[in-house]
Amino acid sequence: MSLIKKNGYANEAFQMENIYLEGKGNDEKSKGEPDVQQVTSENSPSRVEWGGGLEFLMACIAASVGLGNVWRFPFTAYENGGGAFLIPYIIVLFFVGKPFYFLEGFLGQFTSKSCAKTWAMVPAMKGLGYGQAIAAFSIVTCYGGLMSLTLYYLVASFQSELPWSFCREEWKDQCIDTVSKDVNRSTRLLHNDDRTLRSSAELYFRKIVLNEYDSIEDGIGTPSWELCLGLFVTWATIFCILCRGVKSTGKAAYFLAIFPYFVMIALLVRAVTLEGAANGILFFITPDWNKLWQSSVWYAAITQCFFSLSICFGPILTYSSYNNFGHNIRRDVMIVTTLDTFTSLIAGCTIFGILGNLAHEMGTTDISKVVRGGTGLAFISYPEALSQFQVVPQLFAVLFFVMMFVLGIGSAVALSSAVFNILCDHFPNVKNWKLVLIVSIIGYIISLVYITPGGQWFITLVDYYGGTFVAIIVAVLEIATIFWIYGLSNFLNDAEFMLGSRPSFYWRLCWVVIAPLLMIFILICTIVTYESPTYDGVPFPDYAYGIGWFLLFLGVVAIVGCILQKLVQLRSSSLIETVKAAFRPSEEKWGPLDPKIRLEWKEFVAEKKFRHRGGCVEAFLK
């Protein structure tokens, strides 16, 4: 009996006219796997679900609308020319971000499995799930360090005078008060070409909070006990939420998703009313058309889009796996991605409004040189704005840093969930709280690096190599695996079965043509024109670059290793047959989790295949 009569599937990459993959391949593929009649924990329909569709929506908002918008988006836009970055970002969001979000949301809901087991559709590509987990854990450890800094500022906000709003005696002539109206000092800043004068908020962050090193050639130093304590509180919070499972995450998501907007809007209103804010916002929204031809700007736009929406890191796929099979995922995708863009624009206008005010105070019109860029920008610009509140600035500071912590927790819990679920797959007999404890302890130890005097250097390094670089490689391979190996027509049949109708031409065009070609082109250009990342223009020492490349190597090895492992496991006398077996869907493991729905799906797909024998082109155009 041919495979198409069994389950309606034949990978289009290996399909020949009127020839279908025979059941023999499935026999070879099943070495060491349970019989289809066996009921394992993986194929049990008893998987826990969200308390309701609204919980899933709130959890996705908490995961996607987080530090990626409020912390990373502003400094990425600042480093890439403001408006010069905004146009590519919106284009990428529309043609890559939204389609990828829908794709991952669909896969999780369709299979009800973790980001590793989802790839039973093409077993050899299971490593994509592990690559996502490596990228997710790299980023969540960075988030741990950032939330520790947030708690430090939160405690400092209870002082009678905000400690970053004034210059300290030891800074003398290199500082300007954040709330200073000293015309003479501001005038001197106009000729401050070598940046010897800085705002009190910047000096407080770099000299008091971090005690930052100008170089990490001789090491990264040791963290302060205050930051270590803040880091402990951060990971303890993550541990408590994850221990309670998806039900707890869903309930916490209501607060994690809604509360931050009240503070962000209040801060935006204050920022845009500052003197000089209009110039900063104009810098943010005015495009520099010449920079549209720079691949580095497009690469930054793609990686920021992935970072902001948490796509290709595992959380969306993981969260959607807890959905009811018939949930309206398309509606939620449009809500979350639109809200994510709105949040990024709020954060951008707030930050650049503050920078415009700071430029006005300093007597310069060059927004790009007001402060040093980098990962610490949010801990400089936002406190600047908080100091400008005329009435109880301490209250707004407390609310803001509580908001930052809440945003960080929402993102960190989502990223950690992706890692935790993979561990649950591999260690089903270990109690959940023990696995969460292991993740939290390892996360805490690694996060200690990011709160040292050289920590901001390593946040930049890990963000580039271990996070975004791995994520974009995973993204290219993910979309190629689904639509070029598994096949567009197969995927559309699955989508029609679950959603009731086929995705529109917009989705198909983005998935098959625009997104893969754009990402491949940008990735190639980035590799060809590769320049080693720097921190505030200063190169990293060789050992640091070695660590960065090692993180990237781990992500790639996870993918390549799984391909080789599957080829060896399914080896036969024919290399072609071995490759076919490794890259065809697993008959036992691919498909809906619920046995009843799974049977209906197989019948639906078989009927579709019988009636419509067209290929990929017909599926794309239809």
Automatic annotation (TrEMBL):
GO terms for biological process: amino acid import across plasma membrane. Na(+) binds at residues 65, 69, 308, 407, 411. Residues 24-45 are annotated as: Disordered. It is a multi-pass membrane protein. One of its GO terms (molecular function) is L-amino acid transmembrane transporter activity. Unusual broad substrate spectrum amino acid:sodium cotransporter that promotes absorption of the D isomers of essential amino acids. Neutral amino acids are the preferred substrates, especially methionine and phenylalanine. Belongs to the sodium:neurotransmitter symporter (SNF) (TC 2.A.22) family. This is Transporter. It comes from Bombus terrestris (Buff-tailed bumblebee).
